[in-house]
Amino acid sequence: MIKVIMNGCNGHMGRVISDLCAQDDGIEIVAGVDVDMEEAYGYPVFAKIADCDVAADAIIDFSHVSCIDSLLDYSVKKSIPVIVCTTGLSAEQEAAVKAASEKVAVLKSANMSLGINTLMELLKTAAKSLAGAGFDVEIVEKHHNRKLDAPSGTAIALADSVNEAMDEAFTYKYDRFSERKKRDPMEIGIQSVRGGNIVGEHEVFFCGTDEVVTLKHTAYSRAIFGKGAIEAAKYLAGKPAGFYDMGDVIRG
Q1: pLDDT score at 161
Q2: Residue from 143, 202, 217, 227 carrying the catalytic annotation
Q3: Is 78 labeled as catalytic in the residue annotation?
Q4: Can you point out the beta strands (E) in the chain?
Q5: What pTM value is reported for the model?
Q6: Strand (E) positions, 49-146?
Q7: For residues 82 and 79, what is the distance between their CA atoms, to the nearest angstrom?
Q8: Active site includes 144?
Q9: Residue 20 and residue 72 in contact, taking contact as beta carbons nearer than 8 Å
Q10: Which of 7, 11, 95, 123 could be stapled to 161 by a disulfide with Cβ–Cβ 3.0 to 4.6 Å?
């Protein structure tokens, strides 16, 4: 049984993960951390992670960027592996995450979905066969009308997977309206759609002469990110210091 501290336990994702863990015999949340100290799931809740005195095998973090420094300090001090799911980190905080991984196991990915991370692995194989043969690569991402950033971080991560497989040969094109010119064969087009309550949809098109190959992922609820974080905690528990991502979880 993997024992976990849930950082940000009373936020939306913290509650989703608490519900999922309650149905999983392989993992248990033994403590939570949140400014809202409601103990809704039967485990003790601390206002600050530094106050937590409960032993655990891993920490799942869905909190706020302001909590990252104290989270990393605690993880290193207690030698507890940590899964960092909080987004919007500054360059300095990203560097701190990497520095912490030299002392304790740290897992961080642009997207915690097992499906998206499997898609990233598939794209590397597809890119070598198709982009290498001259197929144009285009990405379209769709999200709800409240999402502030565009394109999504996941769309960029998908483009990065293609680019990595092709030795970083491609540039990214976000805007085709400001200039009239023929498409550059060494670019990846990335376009965004915002509307309704779309949780998340990403399509990658490899467009060749007389044929198109499409790889697509659709998220129907945010629970998929919680499921990915739980699998990451099971994987990371007991691992040596180092920087890990969801690709490591998928490859086992």
Answers
A1: 96
A2: 143
A3: no
A4: 2-7, 27-33, 45-46, 58-61, 82-84, 105-108, 136-143, 171-173, 187-194, 200-208, 211-219, 242-244
A5: 0.85
A6: 58-61, 82-84, 105-108, 136-143
A7: 9
A8: no
A9: no
A10: 123
